[in-house]
Amino acid sequence: MASNPFLQSNGEYSQRGNNGYYADERNNSDRIGDFSEMEVVLRDIHNSWGFMLDENFDPVTLALALMDDSSVGKGKDYGAFQRILGNLDAALKTIVDDYYQGFNNSIGTFGGVLQHINDSQNRVAQMKINLKKCKEELLEKRTDLLNMWHKSQQYKEMINLLETIEETRTTPEKLESLMNSKHVYAAANMLVESWKTVLYDLLIEELHNHLYLKNSYCDNRWAEYVHDQQKLPDIKILPRSFDDLAMRKRSTIDGNIKDEDMFALDENDVLAEDLEINPETDSYYYMEIIMEALAMLGQVPPALETIQERLPLEIYALVEKTIAQVEERHSEQSNTSSVRRDTASEDSDMYFLDKANTEAKNEILKDLLWTLYSKMEAVLRGQRFLETCARRIKKRAIRKGEFNGSEDVFNIYHFHEIWKPVQIEIRSLLQDYLTSRERTPASLQHSALTPDNASGKSGFSSTREKNKLLFKFTESPEDQDLEQAYQRVRTNLYSSFKKQISGFSFSDTDRSESFPHSSVIDKYASDMASKGHKVLVKPDAYNVSVLLKPTMAFLQRLHQVFPNYDDQGSEGFGSFLDDFAINVFLPQIEEKVMQLIHHATVGMDAFQDDRNYKNYSKLPIVKSAVALISVIQSLCRTMHSMPFHTEEYIRMIEVVLLKYYEKCYQRFYSMVVRGSTHGSKEVNVTEMNISTSGDWAQDESLVGLLTQNPFFNEDSKIDAEFIRALGQAEITMELKLKDGRQLEADELIFDSKRLIALGRLYHSLKWFVREIWELRTPRQTTKVSIVDPVSDKDPNEEDLSEEPESSQGANSRRWSQSDAKEPENEDPNPVMLSLRGETAVRFDTLLTTYQQLAETCLFTLRLEARCHTMYYLEMVIREGNYYLEDETYEPDPYVITLNSDLMEVDDCINASLPAKDEMFAFDGLPALIVHLLISEATYIKRMNKNGVQKMARNILALQQNLSNFVPSSQSSTLDRACDYYQLYNLGSEGLIRSIRENGPAFTFDEYLVILGLIHDVNKGADSEAKSATPETPTGSPDQRSSANYSEWLMKLDEVMADYE
Description:
single chain, transport, two-stranded antiparallel sheet, exocytosis
């Protein structure tokens, strides 16, 4: 038993009863608890069957072992295993029997809890969705809700109006009823209150008439626009505090009144009214009287509230009246100015970005703004004066104890409350003249009044339907009986007021204008959100150049009226102008500039002659250059008129220069392309085969020689030896580029239109660069768009930068002024493009690229003439016959063609370039001709005296033709070629004797060619015979042979050796 792992080693198994339970444990079941039997079974399992609790236990192995009765099996333990199983089942059954109801209840409770948790989760998820939806709806801009809010405010105002009307209508009946019932005190109180109300309304209207310049006595507080006005007029009428001379002296500095003392009034000063004078003659004095009268009535706080509420309506009416006055003044001018305009002028003006309208239209805009700002200044000065008067009255009332220590009932509006509606009206007006976007109903709703700004108004469209006011008695249907009855009441009312109150005088016109307004303001009338102002001038972003100066002058004057005004706030005019420049003006200008670049450079006539080129230059200039210079000058003028974000203007100018350079570069390649495919179409320069002259003109080595030419540099000190050496170096470089091959016809340019176009492009680019440079450093002594070609420093030019001028800038100033056009009228304010640092270097680099392209055009014309010369002279010598039987009197046909081509090139150059450029184009050409005639002589197969005479005629024809466009000193160099071929007539002996007597005039190889022609060594060159007897030339004194040729060759070598 001890070895049995399933039994206890201490003999506890023997203590079990027949029923399988442990006796001691069973007896203690009540002591252990409800789960005691289960605990006993579990303890037994742990003690005897613990291996079954292992994670790796295999029940199959145990089952097989229990079924095995052998000595190695565990069949003997099968009974113990069954007892453990029975005990376990009995324990579980006991527990289930005891706790069955609890289990059922817990299962049901758990299901309910789980259901509640699921329901809570669903409700939380739905609540989250609803909250998110509410948030989205609250953040969504609902125009219908905004309109409903406006409607509610309008309905409230309508109710107030109706209540006021009803109260006014029933006052006589109530008064009569009180008198009949003998309530005399209440009747007297009602009568006094009614009279106060009527008097209050009259005072308010009189105050508004002077505050908003409706009265004729206020005309001295503002001034109409005068031509060429540059600032707002000075104030001529001041508050009464300045009647004292000492006050004037104390508050005056250099003739200007100090801003902080402008409206300073003594709070202890008692106003004394002079009944002998008309108080309206002094507007400030009259407004002060009205404020004191309102103080006497105790109505200053409601009066200030009424003034603030009526401000948007009054400002709107003031702008409308000013627009009507300006329109009337300019109606005749507008009719006369709308005359025919020349089509050419319209095309030219299109590129002047800062001339969006004609001068007459700009004058209308200036008149409107300067006049309106003068009125606005007077209104704001009046508002400032009323504020000062109200503060004085408030202090006086506080000192007297009329408010019982409470100051909240007497609120005085701040300047920002007055300035905000004025600013909104001005911004709306400026917006109408700067942008032409239409206001749709949706946009009107978007720009309508907000709860935070119920008295303001936003921008308006230029074309709006002027809806009628919501309430206006003067527009009601006329009832004659009612009108007569009301007229009698009104007459009696005014008669009584004239007797009781001095200074009140109302004409019918005044009544009709003032009575529709009252102390009850219909500030929610529908016209406030839909009515706009009539636009007198076509809206355009470039109108800002006209609007800016008067607006800035008005803002400066505003700082005098309100010294503490901060213009840089989020609602200031500074932020408005900056926002307009960034978001509206600059994008529109950039878009317009790109459109103008496309319009100027894309088209069949982009590189045609401008019809008005004589206004700029003596020679024709292409349209695109004139157009884009106008664009750049306009950008410069705008940059100076709007001196902020200048880097954007400079960037746009750079874009213009880069875009135009691309077009000019493509234009050059289209002119030098091989064949007849050229024109204004855009081409891919990398896929083009260009002419030889265009190719050579871009070779750096050859360009380096050409730029040293004195005629190119306009060097007055001409060194003949230097010119000769330079010309020879150029010939050597050209022959090196030619590489010994013979030019073909398709490598040349025969179309004269293309040659003229190259000249036009060169001169236009030259003029374009000069104009750009003139913008950078304008001359003050004369407005010639050019710089001094000798000095790199303009004596009248200001030192714009401490940095030294770049080499590109110095090279860009090298252009000649011989073809510049003197302006008829000097501009006192020249357009400038001041640049610094890296920006200046970039511009100089751009100008240098333009200059290089222009020089390439000029070099191409020069090299084209030289290529024609090479092509035809090679044909003259290699294909010409100089072994003639008869004498000829005509030059070679190729010489005639060459002369014709050279004359055509000269005509093309004269048609597009000045005389100095013609000199450069043909300079050194005679030397090239001489070099070719001599160096190509080796290709002459045979020659006789008639052939020499023909060559002499060729040379003479070339010399005569060259004398038309080169100096005689150069054309005479062709005598050297003539002398060279005349050596043939000297014969061998004469040739040697000439060298001995006069020295060698040519090289050994050149003498060798002539000696070979004399001996006719090429006669049998096409045969295989190594030696042959040449025919004796006609008239030859001696019979020559190959042996004689060798002897004369040795003599030539000996005589030339003496001079080496």
